[in-house]
Amino acid sequence: MSQAMARNPGPRRYDAFLLDLYGTLVDIHTDENQPSLWKRLAGFAVSGGAQWEAEALHRAYLDAVEREEARLRLRDRSIPGARPEIDLAPVFAGLYAARGVAADERLIAETARLFRAASTTHLRLYAGAKELLAALRRQGKVILLSNAQSLFTRPELEELSLSACFDGIYISSEAGCKKPDPRFFRLALKREGLEAGRCLMIGNDPLCDGEGARTVGMEAWVIRSALSPRELAEGYDQEGMDLRRLRKRLTDAEFGVRNLE
Fold it and tell me: Residue 214: which of 196, 189, 238 has the closest Cα?
């Protein structure tokens, strides 16, 4: 039995709801290893003045990501529970620099858009996502807390018409850390002026969303979706992606949140 089920909090009102994005509100599938992606990206880089062969570009990208992740792990090695997150913008800039091109923000953004488009097979809202956000927003603040890359996610929020659905948007690549790192949760809480015990985290990962939230004193509701970690068999409060069912569980016309069970 999960902690959320065991607590059975009963009628109460939350000041804010923090929600995960991919696998919770948005269904997505990406494949960053497909050769066609790197062929297209190499061709685009050449048009910008950077000469790359597709396979060499792929290897250079993976090496650059690994180096940056290692650098951040070293930076945060003394911080309990640290989960550093890289920003891909400097990675793309470094790839251009390696070929003598000083990439500006526009070129990096265009490269990121092509990278994401070429690696994504589908991107769509789960049924009931906007209705859930609207219902929760009538009860308190609605905050996005996503492990993601800003270069990809901010344009996708606009594409899906989601940006205006949130009172605050927090993306791990901008914060330099990711769930379940307590720093990421506390960053959002501090900037939004919220108390952890008055907030509910909603996500699809028992570790990142569930345990991460509870570490800082928040409650959590974890849904098993197709994008949930396959290796985690326990810690779910709801089996199956059904946001309409979740909305009925969480919302109450008078009190905001009734019984989570």
Answer: 196
What backbone torsions phi and psi does residue 170 show, to the nearest 5 degrees?
-125, 120
Check if the beta carbon of residue 89 is closer than 8 Å to that of residue 154. no
Candidates 3.30.420.10, 3.40.50.12240, 3.40.50.1000, 3.40.109.10; CATH matching 3-25+126-250? 3.40.50.1000
Cα 236 off chain centre by: 18
- The full set of domain ranges for the chain reads 3-25+126-250, 35-121
Q: Where are the alpha helices (DSSP H) in the chain?
A: 3-7, 35-47, 54-75, 88-97, 105-119, 129-137, 150-159, 172-175, 182-192, 212-215, 243-250
pLDDT, tens digit (0-9, with 9 covering 90-100), for 175-202? 999 999 999 999 999 999 999 999 999 9
Decide if 208 contacts 181 (C-beta within 8 A): no
- Say if residues 18 and 214 touch (Cβ distance below 8 Å): no
